[in-house]
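Translate sequence into structure tokens.
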Amino acid sequence: MAQPYGPHAAFVAPARRYADLWRIVLGYLIIEIAWFIAANTLTYFPQEPQPRLTAITALFSFLAITLTTFWVVKNLQHRSPLTLFGPEAEVLPAMVRTTSAVLLLFTVITLIPVWDWEGASLARAPVSWALLLPLALPALLIQTSAEEIMFRGFLQQSLGARFRSPLIWMGLPSILFGLSHYDPYAPFGLTLEHMIWAAVFGLAAADLTARTGGLGAAIGLHLGTNLLSVLVFSGPEPFSGLALINFEDPAYDDPWATEFSAVRLAFEILHLWMTWMACRIALRV
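Result follows.
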């Protein structure tokens, strides 16, 4: 019987020699501190009148995560940062396949005539939006790949090298990924929903990483998801300056809607499951 996570053994192999728990914990803390410093430098950039500049700056700031993770892997685990990605020749093809699968599925779902578009409005002229894409797309790739390099690369690889149970090497990075999406400025019910969704997303990304033995599939899943939620549709903040369509969430104005909604979360997770399955079909895993 085929083992779905067979490729994961080769993926974690480069981390086995220096997979001491103290190296993993210290490395994670160093990355988090570097990201905290980088993120807080954004307070020096005004939100107005340049929301697009603020959004792009925020995305590029994720370079701090990538560069610090590379440093941690090189100096604490004594291995090449390239080992975070798995087989180099498979990274780009897997990323393209999963990104395409996410966008194709969304297009099909959008064409179903059951959605209420009352809250949607054109945020800017399509030409103006398109002219920003040469800068916005690389910035978004930096942001999504940085999180995958940290959570599915460094953490999943390191924990997978030390522990055999997927509950640890899939579960712990996914929980930490969910917690990283806490927003102290959003209504607690909404941010709790978002954290739970992010944790489930982390499981989907971890599963694709384990099935393929590389980061390409997870980066593509993440990139496709954020292309839609940042460059196409967006709510109020923090990246609304880049979106083509502004979709105001009534939950920010309706006190009742700020409460945790299990039904809403269930639909979001259902869509995530469909996206995960579409990626698996595209990858044939």
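Note: The longest strand covers residues 120-122.
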